[in-house]
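Project channel, design review

CF: Before we commit to the Ancylobacter defluvii constructs, I'd like one complete example in the thread so the newer folks can see what an input/output pair looks like. Taking DUF6455 domain-containing protein.
RD: sounds good, go ahead.
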Amino acid sequence: MRIDTIDERLALFRHMAGHMGLHALDPSAIPPGELRAGAERCLGCRAGAACRDWLTREAENAPPPEFCRNAESFRRWVEAEIDAAAPR
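CF: and here is what came back for DUF6455 domain-containing protein:
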């Protein structure tokens, strides 16, 4: 894998996280190793062009696309962030 591909995939990972509303995601809110595993799933993804296109078309906070290898993780992280922000 080329260095520019790695940079692109990690940028898409960050962009998708922000798109899901995780701009200020506290990494300590994610179980150990899950953030790294998510980044690694993006590194191995072959849908970079589809991801870029989706990010330009869809509104902020839209559910992640089904082709996203991290769709379920992003959903869990958003739910965890919402739960953490809820008044107790």
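RD: helpful, thanks. The chain has a mean pLDDT of 88.
CF: The longest helix spans residues 3-19.
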